[in-house]
User: What shape does this take?
Amino acid sequence: MNMKGEFKQIIEDLQSVKPVLHHITNYVTAGDCAGIALAAGASPVMADAPEEVADITAGSDALVLNLGTVSQDRKKAMEIAAAAASENKIPVILDPVGVMSSRTRLDFALKLLKDHKITVVRGNYSECRALLQEEAQERGVDNLRTPDQADALKTVKETAQKYNCVVAMTGQVDYISDGLHALMINGGHPLMTRITGAGCMTTTVVAACVAVADEKLEGAMLGLIIMGQAAELAAGLLEKKDGPGLFKARLFDSVYHVIDKWNLIMDNLNPERAN
Assistant: This one.
């Protein structure tokens, strides 16, 4: 697997194609996701009316389904859009926000995974574990657990196998698997946990890369790497008086610069195959 060569091609295609990303997402971070999509070179569409989502999805390069603020209309729209994506061979990226703490969200996420072709799941450890065990027994939507490496690898790989998709599991260390291969990706910064929308924005960047990638594992992996590199760059630009607010603003700039200057940072990348 020549990952550096694959990454270079995905970056070039991202910059030339400017993929259209249809989001059906939550109202808390919709603006953040649209902004990070533009910074990455993609074109966001935020549309969740059931009567129009089939047409919007059919004209897009990827579909993002985010469960952060689910409602009956939004769930209906997601199912219609997912069916349209399957019909038009468009990748679907699912962000199962908070499924570990809500039986309603978990049941709907499981329905999407079982009834539709989901290309990538991007979630934290607690969300992925809930999908794997089909249980919702925690509180809140943030990941409160830090798994050891063996547990993380087992969870990401078994979840990918169970749902026949790529699983990108983010946290202090990111893990990604297609059910056959599993890799660890170091990067990011602790300030990512102190801003709203870090996970949702990561899902969007993953979607941008997956939209133009021939191999969806490499596309999702590159999305995680871009966000990790951007977080490190954004944190490095802060002064002592700065905090999460300015970090978030710098994150948009840093995603733009990481993609624009990809050739300069590519030699420093070394994703680690875990098993």
Notes: The first strand starts at residue 20 and ends at 24. Residues 271-275 have pLDDT under 50 and may be disordered. The longest helix spans residues 216-236.
